[in-house]
Write the structure tokens for this entry.
Amino acid sequence: MRKNRRSLAAAAVLLALSMVLAACGPKQSAPPASPGTEQQQGGSQTQTPPETQAPSGPKVGGELNLRLAQDPDNLNPILSSSAYGSAIYGLVYSSLFDFDVDWSPKPDLAERWETLDDGLTFRVYLRQGVKFHDGAELTSEDVVFTMKAIKHPDYTGPRAASLASIEDIVAVDKYTVDFKLSEPFAPIFTNINYGILQAKLFEGTEIGDLENHEVTWHPIGTGPYIFKEYVRGQYALLERNPNWFRSEEEGGAPFIQTIRMKVIPDDQTALAALENGELDVETPTPSEVQRLKTEYAGRLIPVEYERNGWGYMLLNTTQPPLDDVRVRQALTYALDRESIVQGALNGEAVVPPGPIPPVSWAFKDDLKTLAYDPAKAEQLLQEAGFTKGANGIYEKDGKPLKLRFYATEGSSLIEALATIARQNWLDVGIEVDVQFMDFNAMNQTKLQPGDYDISFQAFNLGLDPDSLYAIFHGSLAKPNAEGLVTSFNRMRYDNPEVNALLEAGRRESDPEKRKEIYGQAQQLIVNDAPVILIYSNLYTDFHTPRVKGIVNFPGAGATLDYLYKWYIEE
């Protein structure tokens, strides 16, 4: 299952609950290509038919058991860089927009909206009478506070890039907010779609100290579920919000009374929990899919879909020898990604030609890729000044070519992937030391400080290609005063040509022109190799028959987005 689309995914991240991959995608919704245009999609999804509703209809009650593969980094919707956090806060907080199954925006906290001043003012009219879980009314001040916190110079979260084209956020009146733009901004729906914080709770708090605020771990939002408890390493508990602001026509209050998210890092433990009924929803590793379909036919219900994201390896572009593009390209050429897809993912994936996956409307399939070519890899290493030693390992200036590879612990998929990759690289004379870590520890001690060479991550882009800005724009590669890169550009990648194209993509409203712009950016990114794109998954979620009302989204699967429609039938 994926993170809630109402929280900004660009993150959003990976599937928030069911995958143990270290998802760190932006918490970003996935709106249409641009406002007012028809959504275009490539790729395909296989969806199970909608379940037949029980004659008695959905009833309030029951407990839903879900998985958290890791503990969250925090529960603040503007600070978290983990899908495990978004799985929780995405149900506790609401944002300005929701998105329908065709990915078109629809009201959430925003009742309606309009564009003024030749596209330079985006005005949002809030619902009136919306209450936070503590009884306080949501107003424009809360929206302004949330957005200005992200734009504040002391902001330490990963989402600043999404608001780069927004000059100011103004409360016109109690229920109206203007977003003042420096230029027309195509991905506006996506890039202002965060969980809205309650401003008064943060009075007197410095923006740079938000992560230490009590609300960061005890969230108070306006969403369909009320936060009750989080016990690190064990579970998070949410309860139904009977006073949620949605009308009956919009679905009303949720049906499921409580949601228990169990922290289960190990894939096999989670699979056993699904099989014995301790979990209600899970995404098993691809190697287990066919067995479950056969062995548990009728007892577990599959939901198949193509995910709009990818698993990839970050390469530290500022760390020698990876600051040399030839070495990064060599690593890419040396990697047999098709073997990884077949061996680690049982063929349940494709190797994406570029950083926009096949399911996206902006997918481009004619990119010139760095396909598997071990001889080419060795040629590039030699051009970079490396010579092969007697032990078969390349060296330079008396130092062997040995790289540090960090990945999230607990995943059999990642372990299999890392094993294949390590051997591929060793075959051409590159030694790689693979270490598995807790995601939060890895992020804080290795990725953000830049103390790594390679890291495996998973990322969910949403359907708007502006997600590439959050990952690859050079403005996000600069370390802060503490030497940390807290954005998603932890490769510290900076190419002025790519920057210009990503900026142009934000200004262009025509989807075909945008697709061409992002195609050019993709080709440059592929050539520069700041990341190695491994796969774009074909996923199968499984859920127990007691869970009804699940909605399958193109590119997202059985997500939590419409969990208020789910119900339990014992």
User: Anything to note?
Assistant: The first strand starts at residue 9 and ends at 13. The chain is about 25% helix and 25% strand. Residues 254 and 564 are 4 Å apart (CA to CA). The two ends are 22 Å apart (CA to CA).
